Amino acid sequence: MSERHIVFIGGGPRTAMILERINANRDQLAQDALHLHVVDPFPVGAGRIWREDQSPLLKLNSRAADVTMFTDDSVQCLGPAHHGPALDQWVQLIRDSQLPDAPSLVHTDPLLRQEIATLAAGDFPTRRLQSCYLRWFFARVQASITAPDTITIYQDTAVDLIDESPSHRVLLASGREIIADQVVMAQGHLDARLPSDPRAVELAAQAAAGKNLGYVAPGYTNDIDFSALRPGTEVLVSGMGLAFTDLFVLLFEGRGGRFEPAEHGGLRYVPSGAEPRLLAGSRRGVPYHSKIRSTTTAELTTAYFTEQGINTLYAQHGELDFFAHVWPLLAKETGFFYYRELFAAHPEAVRGSFEEFKSAYDHLDWYSPERTSLVARFIATKDRLEFEDLEFPLPIVRPLSLQGSRDQLGALVREHIEEDLRVRDSADHPQFQALFFGLLRSYVLLPQIHDKLSLAGQAQQAAWWQGFFSFVDSGPPAHRLRELLALHQAGFIDFLGPETRFDFDRERQLFRAQTLAGPVHAPWLIEARLPHTTISTSTDPLLAALLARGIITDEPGGSGKMHITSLRQVIGRGGNIHRWLFAVGATVGRFQAGAFSRPNSNSAPFADSDALAREILSAPATMSHWELARAIADSHRSIA
205 and 321: one domain? Predict the structure, then answer.
């Protein structure tokens, strides 16, 4: 029997899912003995981001029932589904002593034992518990790989990859080498070199040269040492997304503070005395929208943003612009989900019947006066959906010249958070859950759109879509926003409002926030956001080596992501397609699905991983000269 060696660079949840799909498909597609190799300096299964070694205070922004690593019958893929427990079901199996291969840590760690004893399906689990689930999944996949196949784990770092066709050499930091027939790069989220960000370099230099100054560049909050931040220090915070949520959790509850129930369902913060004082602002000026507690009642079937709908647009326009062609159709689809649920759940908020509304809505563009008029005729003002208002919710009046205008900005942010909690952390507003599902389902179709977009359209999608989606659909649990309000009420967090810009005031030798109400100064500045990492700015030694030799290249359009084919094969200098080298993850171009996802929802990560696994198994034997020629032609068109 012939042998094939497949090396995975990165052992996080995406690699675990691809390995499971390789094992699921191997009898159909592979005649070779498969020798699988996984290289990662962090524990396999969880990887860096989901490793157990992090604060027990940090949580997922997904409920336990909404997290699974297993395919199910909803997944539209060619490989067989292999069912298994979602996170909440996995916890129940442990509680019932029905999971003999459960990680030992869930039994020996007091905090994890307590969490397992009380976690409900609708609760938000800690990242440490998720880490145990991911490592258990990987161990189960590992155990399912049997002779003649093998799997070998290397707790090491890949530093180079030597192309010596027909086989290749993966070089590790330890000095070891792995012979590979195929390589899959799945390094996940990577750090960026500070010198690649001139602004960060300048601000860091100002902090280093000054007295009692501090600057924290964009990074992964859990990996940052905040011990030099002394109690009582005022800190400007740039960014109010999920990294900001992690930041205030670690700097307040993580320093011994606690929250107690207050009247009207709120919280009261009890300080420890070790707290700094945060002054937070951003472009939007508000935190991500809260996760939603309601349940939809209307049928959630797609109507407009479909493969047929996209093909019709492509036939009309040729290469598509994301904002001009794709987004209006996506917005119409999501608006349809929202209004269908509004009619079903709140007949008192609408006029007329849904059938009458839909018969007119079917024929209207989202960005048309006729659609605006239709909504005005049927829907009360407070319940109308406009995505621009959803993305930038604060009503800003310029100039803010009244006395106490900073307080006005803070009040606007506070009122927005309170209203967001009112409609989202409630069972009474299911139209927002329908909106959530409308955007989420778009992920299933987005991979099919990439090749129909112009280069400008691809750049538009890459620059805007993920940020908008995360802001609306991927926010923190509601209790985190209640904690934020409690910290604000206690005087430990002030809101600077939207359109806040941050720099250094050389005259005053302090960091400065330029707000709509004037400048605010502080001795510390924290960039509460992930680094913007490209293949040219990454600290990853393997990417640096491959980029220098032209084995990997930037995708056209200026995203800084790795250029790959629709089959996830890497495109090198001169359009050279490396059929043996695949890439997925945050630094890779095209549409990138995540890893774990919601069960029973045909989530994109499962179908995407199945397709990649099948391609890895079949590419050496089944790609004909015609298929290769087509892939090369597609590549040449994309770089022309």
Answer: no
